Amino acid sequence: xxxxxxxxxxxxxxxxxxxxxxxxxxxxxxxxxxxxxxxxxxxxxxxxxxxxxxxxxxxxxxxxxxxxxxxxxxxxxxxxxxxxxxxxxxxxxxxxxxxxxxxxxxxxxxxxxxxxxxxxxxxxxxxxxxxxxxxxxxxxxxxxxxxxxxxxxxxxxxxxxxxxxxxxxxxxxxxxxxxxxxxxxxxxxxxxxxxxxxxxxxxxxxxxxxxxxxxxxxxxxxxxxxxxxxxxxxxxxxxxxxxxxxxxxxxxxxxxxxxxxxxxxxxxxxxxxxxxxxxxxxxxxxxxxxxxxxxxxxxxxxxxxxxxxxxxxxxxxxxxxxxxx
Length: 325
Known about the structure:
Elements: H1 2-16, H2 21-28, H3 32-44, E1 49-52, E2 58-61, H4 74-79, E3 83-84, H5 86-91, H6 95-108, H7 114-123, E4 125-126, H8 142-150, E5 152-158, E6 167-179, E7 182-189, E8 192-197, E9 201-210, H9 219-231, E10 237-244, H10 248-255, E11 264-265, E12 271-278, E13 294-298, H11 300-324
Parallel strand pairs: 3-4
Antiparallel strand pairs: 1-2, 5-6, 5-9, 6-7, 7-8, 10-12, 10-13, 11-12
């Protein structure tokens, strides 16, 4: 948009002083001729901007002319530049828009706040993704975004965890939430709040029907209800283990989601004791990665589950070895 481009020119000149026309053209992805036309439009609207042609020329604001974002405190200015990981913006197609917006804000900040905001942008970063998350399926959020912003109902084909075939649902979207690097669609199904992982959506069809949200209920309200349901869900299996002290860091990194308390020091021994809580028995098989560096103390059914899994692995490889002889 031309109005957006004119504002960008003003803010760039305010930050940089004199800027060659060809550089403005490259930054704004337009021709040099368009830049000069924009400068004429700005001058006609009352902005104190002029162009000087020639080898050492450029475009510049007359002294004293500026456009400010007013009312921002120093802390508010710094807060704007503590950025989350770019993955969230990229998934929504907003990486380029974010960079452009921040350049405009930086240029328009009151001069005393600008250095602190610039330092904050280089010294602070929020990365919401978990360590060792493993490869994730690519997520196409375009159709989900369309439904959210168009206020239309959505028909989903959705595969639940452990299911071999997807199920079909008609839902009323409230919005999209990124939680620890995973995108979720928050929606009502028949008036009941539901949570759908975006990477399990096999297809999404935008319907003609307008969305039917509950009155006076916003995305944040529904998310809070769903978040509590997940976090306060009764545990299916409580497990006590001991892990070798040398592997405590690895254990904490891989099992953090199931820990109910920090590991307890057994008083200088080789082992640490920890308590975990799993939703179902099959989830405990992840402990096999520690081999003999971890021992399950209780309950007996977890030890039996791990012994059965280990026996199956042993049988598989023994048969392969026997066949190779």
